[in-house]
Amino acid sequence: MIKLSNILTEVLNTYQVECDLFTDKEFNITDVLNQVRGLRKVTIVNNITPEEYPQKDKIEYTKLKIKFVTREDPKQDLPKFKEDMLTSDLSKTDLRIPGIKSVTFKEETLKRL
User: Fold this and answer.
1) Per residue in 42-96, pLDDT tens?
2) I want to staple 65 with a disulfide (CB 3.0 to 4.6 A). Which of 29, 46, 78, 101 is the partner?
3) Under 8 Å between Cβ of 64 and 48
4) Where are the alpha helices (DSSP H) in the chain?
């Protein structure tokens, strides 16, 4: 049975941050976002890209709102998220998400929910 204290701890440690994601257009953005949702600590990923934002020929820009749960300083989780998304040396980790070229977290948008 779930303890009330465990539920409250999770609620009190939920954060949200926005980021800019640049992906290769050859990869389906839905598949990429599903893999971002699969990262440790990430709970929800919302695509908030403005419709009028101009796209480039081979690179797709996507603005995301990511919600995650942590028991630590949430700013320390952002570099780990970036590393998990972009690591290209698969001998160290198998968490690389195919299609992602770059990701930039906007620390000024980080807030507790």
Assistant:
1) 999 999 999 888 888 889 999 999 999 998 899 999 999 999 898 765 555 555 8
2) 46
3) yes
4) 4-12, 29-37, 74-86
Q: Tokens 């992602």 belong to which residue?
A: 100
Query: What pLDDT, in 10s, does the model give residues 84-113?
Result: 898 765 555 555 888 899 999 999 999 998
> How many other β-carbons are positioned within 10 Å of the β-carbon of residue 74?
20
Dihedral-angle region of residue 79 (phi above 0 means left; psi in -120 to 50 means alpha; beta otherwise): alpha
pLDDT (tens digit per residue) in 16-28: 999 999 999 999 9
Q: Would you list the DSSP string of 34-92?
A: HHHHTSTTEEEEEE---TT----SSEEEEEEEEEEE-SS-HHHHHHHHHHHHH---TTT
Closest CA to 103 of 54, 52, 35: 35
Which amino acid is residue 82, in one-letter code? K
Of 86, 85, 68, residue with least CA distance to 77 = 68
